[in-house]
Amino acid sequence: MWIEIEALPFAYRMPMEQTALLLIDMQRDFLEPEGFGASLGNDVTLQGYGKLASI
């Protein structure tokens, strides 16, 4: 079974049997809408994470 992650410049396809989800540096400052990450213009929503975590 494969999972496909929408990304730019192209979607990334990977086999689920050989894939791990690794979350690094998930600090509030990088995730909150008023945090440092957002002030740099980064998308700090967790829309993609919810999809991966539910698999």
Structure characteristics:
single chain, alpha+beta, two-stranded antiparallel ribbon, 2 strands
Please estimate the helix content: 25-40%
Strand content: 5-15%
Structural Rg: 13 Å
Q: Uncertain spans, ≥5 residues at pLDDT below 50?
A: none
**Biggest sheet layout:** 2 strands, antiparallel
Q: What is the tally of helical segments?
A: 3
DSSP, total strands: 2
- Could you state the oligomeric state of the chains shown? single chain
**Helix and strand succession?**
EEHHH
Distance between the termini: 12 Å
Structural class: alpha+beta
Question: Can you describe this structure in just a few lines?
Answer:
By secondary structure, the protein is of the alpha+beta class. It has three helices and two strands, in the order E-E-H-H-H.
Topology of this structure?
Elements lengths: L1 E4 L6 E4 L12 H4 L4 H4 L7 H7 L2
Antiparallel strand pairs: 1-2
Task: Write structural notes for this entry.
The protein contains three helices and two strands, in the order ββααα. It is elongated. It starts with a strand and ends with a helix. The chain is α+β, with helices and mostly antiparallel strands and 55 residues long. A two-stranded antiparallel sheet has the order 1-2. The mean pLDDT is 79.
